[in-house]
Design brief:
7 helices, globular
Length: 252
Amino acid sequence: MWRFTFYLYIFTYGVRFLKKTPWLWNTRQCWNGYPYQPLMPDLHYYYIVELSFYWSLMFSQFIDIKRKDFGIMFTHHIVTVTLITFSYVTNLTRVGTLTLCLHDAADVVLEAAKMANYCKCQKLSDLLFLTFAIVFIVSRLGIYPLWILNTTLFELYEALGNFPALWVFNVLLVILQILHCFWSYLIIKAAYKAVSKGKVAKDDRSDIESSSDEEETVPRSKTLHSTITTNGTSGANGTNGYLTGGTCSEEH
């Protein structure tokens, strides 16, 4: 519930902030006047709140149940915190706000799907997951490379030429895109099972490596309820932390 509240708040805040900025409609405005762009109070607040949240996710991962994708999620958190910090220090904050808002869009739907699952509203949970899958794939594999990577790889170079921060920034953004591709594969696999079997199926990332009392008391072959797990950007399985459910007796 608290994650849904946070993502809904920060996504709404980001949209309200960005709709008043020229770089939302024209990404070349991200580089107009760089590096002497003023740091607006609203932008500063947006950055600090997002950075604080991702720091909390990185540390909370060590006290949560350890899962198979621990290393991948930890890499994601490191890259995200480094990106936010680096873009703030180098004043690449305009494109940073676009990136943050774009990533928050799918997380709102994901957290809503988790809450529906906790309330045992399976049909609503599956519907929200499929919605999440569409939003995630469109935003991370479509809009992100065509909008964000296009302006950082090409428009930034055209406007300002070559400088060291450009390469560091783009390497981090490309690493993030590689993670998007990996999570999209897992989402598509889970969405396919949801459509073909009528419920969201568990994928490989939902297996818990550490011991679990639930496994000891409930035989896997008899567990038929769907689960949506959390851990990181949120969460630990499925897709950027994201999800999964299905018959727990099924192994992939």
